[in-house]
Automatic annotation (TrEMBL), chain A:
Domain of life: Bacteria
Name of the protein: Protein kinase domain-containing protein
Key words of the record: Membrane, Transmembrane, Transmembrane helix
Gene3D superfamilies, per the entry: Transferase(Phosphotransferase) domain 1 (1.10.510.10)
Organism: Thermobifida cellulosilytica TB100
Family matches, as InterPro entries: Kinase-like_dom_sf
Bias kind Basic and acidic residues: ranges: 254-279
Region (Disordered): 231-302
Composition bias type Pro residues, residue spans: 287-298
Chain segments annotated as transmembrane: 335-353
Automatic annotation (TrEMBL), chain B:
Compositionally biased spans, kind Acidic residues: 124-136
The protein, known as: Uncharacterized protein
Region of interest called Disordered, as start-end residue ranges on this chain: 97-161
InterPro entries (UniProt xref): P-loop_NTPase (IPR027417)
Source superkingdom: Bacteria
């Protein structure tokens, strides 16, 4: 049998994933070879193979031999390369392009997320479809996350079984439903959901895929109120991807040129804006600037004015004071005052003598 | 007569715009569901304040605004002080049956032929009880048992008495916001979505420097309305009932908003008025709409559906918006007030307004370019683009025969315009599609209004010269 690769080999540090054509000859299917990178994981992989075989058998029995496209089918040991205990082989739909596991692909290129709204819707439908089938035959998946998800550009496939467990009473099934909701949040926004789904996160999801926020919220409800995988699948089928051009950031979207009529309206609005601002400015004027406070000049640095200048500018009193100041310090002041008084008496006496 | 210990001597009634003497007003307990008065707690409140009322009843305690507790607007301390200088310029208020009113109506009835002036509106009405102790005030207020909630005989009249939440009277700074628009324009849906989002976005509001909490117990009261609960419940999404013209003219909901962006925390009660749209087009109902003159900010709600007829898009509106009528009344009132106080009237009305194109999802469905540029954005809190959006909405309205919607922009001194949708989808048989239901940008107009009133930093929307805010030089 000719084996040829249908996808690039991927590795996530624990396992290596390679892809080849379906060993049974089906053209619509391919096989995934999961090998351990670390030899210590061989036992774990063997245990997973046993669980995969068990779940595959249950699904085959439960669905009358038709295996869903959204779930990977275990390929029994002895066929192809599955004779080794360190390799697990799963059969998956081949899809339209390169097969890839989401987790190692994201590790290689984190910009893969968020995926487009249409892909989000497809992943939602496929994952809940796979879970609905698995739950209907009494099994819970136990590890719905990006590590278990395989994408073939046409559909999403749950393609790991390491945590699969028999769940006849459906207790663990609700955990799968919530895990799938977290997975959807992750692929839709590019960020893992930490904690509760906030209102803004709810709205964000709805803005990408109409109804996705509501679906995720219902899938994260407390277990007693949580929807089943089948209900979630039905809801997922009604999701409406929001058109990418509509949800893209308008600021970065090319803006078309205004028509002459629009340009005139725009000018009109801008003129109104200026008028409004002027009106507001008049009503609520800015606070006036405080008076500038000049430093007091050092008197020693100023050239002293002459007594004549002082007499001319300020009158007799200040001129006399300045004269007294010039006459000396406090010690000579009484002498100066006395002299001035004597002079004043003499002048008055002379004036009085002339009058009489 | 003593006034309640925790109230100022006077408070302004947001409904009739009169100034109330708190020492004369009754304090009553009202039933949440029926709005009827259940009991009188005037004495207790006067002695101990609101703390004297049982805790479970404090949110239901109201101050009664009746004619006899309203102060003469011409008194030195009363509402409209100084108006006597020009008594002839003040339009006389009087009801259709000739009964005078004490509320200063300031031109409301200017063109109502049914109303005849029956006396100065600036004088105090005769006391109903007729008991006069000589000081001009009736002394038995609040102590005498009296019939409660008189039957409202005229749906055009403001009910008398009407009631103010007690706690509302305790806070001095208020921002009364009115939603203006005709019937079925989407006012109530927008308000419900807005109020809901306001509660949900605590963290992002905190980043803008505001803390928001429902005022008193109003949120509980509001949510008790069956249609509101159905509208907001994710698993129901039912349409709101139409607002009746006889519904009480009281604010629907109020929030206490603590503004911290300016340094010192300041409390402000933000209240929302939502009345039946048909009242705005009815000249006879103007007395019921007195509150519009006392509003501090306006949200004009335009019905985007009015641009489309059964045969597609129209060059013009399907029905009137009611904006013209309201703005004309407010302008008229401003003119009279300016004349009475001998002040120069401003070119623009000195209040902020937002114009909201509600139900814009319908425009989106019609592939309208301008709507698709904005409506799908999750940008309620990215306020720096508010002016850019306003410009685009203006261009859209101006070039699509909806110039009537632009009247507020040329009338008010500060205005922004927005595309919003409270539901994200159309109503079918009283229900909305639960998958498509979403509130689209409903908080953005309110935040723009907050910025234009200084509750959040006006710089966030690149506006300046906002009252009460330190202005740039």
């Amino acid at each position: 049998m000719t084996e040829y690769a249908t996808g690039t080999v991927q590795e996530d540090g624990r396992y290596r994933y390679s892809f080849r054509a379906d060993s049974s000859g089906g053209s619509g299917r391919a096989e995934v070879l999961i090998e351990t990178v670390d030899p210590q994981l061989t036992e774990e992989l063997a245990a997973e193979a046993a669980l995969a075989a068990e779940a595959t058998g249950a699904v085959m029995d439960g669905t009358g031999g038709r295996f869903p496209r959204t779930l990977a089918e275990y390929v029994e040991a002895g066929t192809g390369a599955n004779s080794s205990r360190s390799t697990l082989v799963l059969r998956v739909p081949r899809g339209r392009g390169q097969l890839l596991y989401l987790e190692p692909a994201i590790q290689d290129n984190p910009r893969l997320l968020p995926v487009t709204p249409k892909v989000v819707r497809k992943i939602a439908v496929d994952v809940y479809e796979a879970l609905a089938v698995l739950h209907s035959v009494g099994y819970a998946h136990g590890a719905v996350n990006t590590s278990s998800l395989l994408w073939n550009r046409r559909e999403a496939v749950l393609a790991r079984y390491h945590r699969v467990i028999s769940d006849p009473d459906g207790r663990r099934s609700s955990i799968d439903v919530a895990d799938a909701a977290r997975l959807l949040y992750h692929v839709a926004t590019g960020r893992p959901l930490s904690g509760e789904l906030t209102h803004s996160a709810h709205r964000e999801l709805n803005s990408r895929v109409s109804g996705l926020g509501d679906l995720v919220a219902a899938a994260l409800d407390p277990p007693d109120r949580r929807i089943s995988a089948a209900e979630a699948r039905d809801r997922a089928r009604q999701l409406v991807p929001v058109e990418e051009n509509a949800q893209s950031d308008a600021a970065s979207a090319p803006r078309r040129e205004d028509t002459p009529e629009e340009a005139a309206a725009r000018r009109e609005f801008r003129e109104l804006r200026v008028e409004q601002q002027d009106a507001r400015r008049r009503r609520h004027p800015p606070e006036p600037l405080p008076e500038p406070r000049w430093p007091t000049p050092d008197p020693g640095l100023l050239k002293p004015r002459s007594p004549w200048r002082v007499l001319l500018d300020e009158g007799v009193g200040p001129a006399a004071r300045q004269l007294l100041d010039r006459a000396g310090g406090p010690a000579t002041r009484p002498l100066a005052v006395g002299t001035a008084a004597v002079l004043l008496v003499i002048i008055l006496g002379v004036l009085l003598g002339r009058m009489l | 007569m003593s006034r309640p210990v925790d109230l100022p001597p006077t408070v302004d009634c947001p409904y009739c715009l009169a100034r109330i003497d708190t020492s004369r007003a009754r304090s009553v307990i009202r039933d949440i569901a029926t709005q009827e008065v259940k009991g009188d707690v005037t004495d207790v409140v006067r002695q101990h304040g609101l703390i004297g009322v049982a805790p479970y009843n404090r949110g239901n305690t109201y101050l009664e605004c009746t004619r006899r507790v309203r102060l003469d607007p011409t008194s030195a301390t009363g509402y409209g002080a100084g108006l006597l200088d020009e008594p002839t310029t003040v339009v006389v208020g009087g009801s259709g049956d000739g009964e005078p009113t004490t509320a200063f109506t300031g031109g409301i009835d200017f063109d109502d032929p049914d109303d005849e002036p029956t006396g100065s509106p600036l004088s105090l009405d005769d006391d109903v009880d007729g008991e006069d102790d000589g000081d001009g005030w009736e002394s038995s207020t609040g102590t005498q048992p009296r019939p409660v909630l008189p039957t409202q005989t005229d749906e055009n009249e403001l009910p008398d008495p009407h009631y103010l939440p007690y706690e509302y009277c305790q806070i001095r700074r208020t921002l009364n916001i009115g939603l203006i628009g005709t019937t079925r324009s989407g006012k109530s849906h927008l308000l419900a979505a807005m109020l809901y989002r306001l509660r949900e976005e605590e963290r992002r509001l905190a980043r803008l420097g505001v803390h928001v909490e429902p005022f008193a117990e109003m949120w509980e009261h509001y949510m008790q309305r069956e249609d509101i609960a159905g509208f907001l419940a994710p698993d129901r999404r039912t349409a709101l009932r139409r607002t009746n013209r006889t519904d009480p003219v009281e604010f629907r909901m109020a929030y206490t908003v603590t503004s911290t962006w300016n340094g010192e925390p300041t409390d402000c009660v933000v209240s929302f008025f939502d009345v039946a749209g048909e009242l705005f087009l009815d000249a006879k109902a103007r007395r019921r709409l007195q509150f519009i003159y006392g509003l501090d900010a306006y949200i004009f709600v335009a019905d985007s559906q009015a641009l489309y007829g059964w045969d597609g898009k129209r060059r013009g509106l399907l029905h009137r918006s009611g904006f013209d009528e309201v703005i004309n009344q407010i302008l008229q009132n401003e003119r009279h007030m300016a004349h009475a106080t001998k002040q120069r009237r401003e070119t623009f009305l000195p209040k902020p307004a937002v114009v909201v194109l509600a139900k814009a999802d319908l425009l989106l469905a019609q592939n309208e370019y301008w709507t698709s540029r904005w409506l799908e954005r999750d940008d309620d809190f990215e306020l720096e683009t508010v002016d850019e959006e306003s410009e685009d909405v203006y261009v859209y309205c101006a070039t699509n025969g909806a110039r009537e919607w632009l009247k507020p922009v040329s009338a008010f001194e500060d205005a922004t315009l927005h595309f919003t949708s409270a539901t994200g989808c159309e109503e079918r048989d009283g229900h909305y599609n639960k998958r498509k239901f979403r509130h689209m940008r409903v908080l953005r107009p309110l935040l723009a209004l907050f910025a234009m009133t200084g509750i959040i930093d006006p710089k966030t929307i690149n506006h300046a010269y906002v009252p009460g805010v330190r202005d740039p030089r």
